[in-house]
């Protein structure tokens, strides 16, 4: 197995070198979940934790970075949403806090933010949902890419990782590419390393980790769930677009369907303008993720989860999860070489 481990290290050497860690496994940035405890635990276990800034203001992010640094001396990153109204200030907070890697997610990164990250000496990681955008991100200065398939939890694109990997990995060689979406076992990670990926990003497996501050009800929902229980949100009327979010089906998701239909009817009767109706639909889930993750309301809250949730069968420490993934990958490599 020593030779197999050496081969695994060779396969993801570009990823570990880029991230500055021993294991090229990034933690997915999950709002309310990816905070100091989980992020530091992933980094301390040899992986690469990523703080989910989400809707934090600059002062909150500054405190979170400092608290994480107090819990680990290993590298970690910060994920910023490009639509955040204080994006420039958040970038400055990351640079002042000596964060080495900044992830810009949720849209095409603005040129000003890209330049600020690069000029500040940090490495920029961007998401690429298609080959044409991957090439554009590289041209605009991204130092690495994440390609995330629709199997992932939370906000998703329309294309599976299986297809994205085939579309993008053979053509993007200039920067490291990390794969994400539906990953729950080491053999799967290995298959994408073989295709040219430099590492992987996992969220769902870590959301239910022992160090995750998610409510016990939230973790128990993961333990009970199968892959088919993690479905994207459904849009009732194309006039009122719904951003697809993958999560566990519960009473809240059923109420959302009825809420959309009722709101559409109020629009058609003239009670609401189109803009007001759209806002009514968008506001339905306001605070719903926090209700599930922090307060434990897994029936009415938003239980975001990827399809790999079916592979969450026990509460493990992050170190155990990473060790298990590596053991699976090295066993597959050893079997391949007949040892």
Automatic annotation (TrEMBL):
InterPro entries: Aldolase_TIM, NMO. CDD domains: NPD_like. Keywords: Flavoprotein, FMN, Monooxygenase, Oxidoreductase. SUPFAM superfamilies: Inosine monophosphate dehydrogenase (IMPDH) (SSF51412). The keyword Amino-acid biosynthesis does not apply. It comes from the Bacteria. Gene3D superfamilies: Aldolase class I. GO terms for molecular function: nitronate monooxygenase activity. The keyword Flavoprotein applies. This is Nitronate monooxygenase. It comes from Limobrevibacterium gyesilva.
């Amino acid at each position: 197995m020593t030779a197999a481990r050496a081969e695994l290290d060779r396969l993801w050497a570009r990823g570990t070198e880029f991230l500055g860690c021993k294991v090229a496994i990034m933690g997915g940035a999950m709002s309310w979940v990816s905070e100091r405890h989980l992020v530091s635990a992933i980094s301390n276990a040899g992986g690469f934790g990523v703080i989910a800034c989400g809707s934090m203001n600059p002062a909150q992010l500054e405190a979170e970075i400092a608290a994480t640094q107090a819990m680990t001396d290993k590298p970690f990153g910060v994920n910023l949403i490009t639509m955040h109204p204080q994006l420039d200030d958040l970038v400055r907070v990351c640079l002042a806090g000596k964060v080495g890697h900044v992830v810009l997610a949720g849209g095409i990164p603005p040129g000003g933010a890209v330049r600020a990250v690069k000029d500040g000496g940090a490495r920029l990681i961007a998401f690429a949902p298609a080959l044409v955008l991957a090439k554009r991100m590289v041209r605009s200065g991204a130092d690495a890419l994440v390609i995330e398939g629709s199997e992932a939890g939370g906000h998703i694109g329309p294309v599976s990782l299986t297809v994205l990997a085939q579309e993008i990995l053979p053509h993007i060689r200039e920067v490291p590419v990390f794969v994400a979406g539906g990953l729950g076992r080491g053999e799967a990670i290995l298959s994408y390393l073989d295709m040219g990926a430099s590492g992987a990003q996992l969220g769902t497996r870590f959301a239910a980790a022992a160090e995750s501050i998610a409510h016990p009800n939230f973790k128990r929902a993961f333990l009970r769930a199968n892959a088919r229980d993690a479905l994207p949100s459904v849009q009732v009327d194309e006039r009122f677009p719904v951003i697809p979010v993958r999560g566990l089906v519960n009473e809240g998701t059923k109420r959302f369907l009825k809420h959309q239909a009722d709101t559409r009817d109020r629009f058609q009767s003239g009670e609401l303008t189109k803009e007001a109706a759209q806002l009514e639909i968008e506001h339905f889930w306001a605070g719903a993720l926090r209700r599930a993750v922090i307060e434990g309301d897994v029936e009415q809250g938003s239980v975001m989860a990827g399809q790999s949730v079916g592979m969450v069968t026990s509460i493990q420490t992050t170190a155990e999860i990473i060790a298990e993934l590596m053991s699976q990958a090295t066993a597959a490599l050893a079997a391949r070489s007949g040892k």
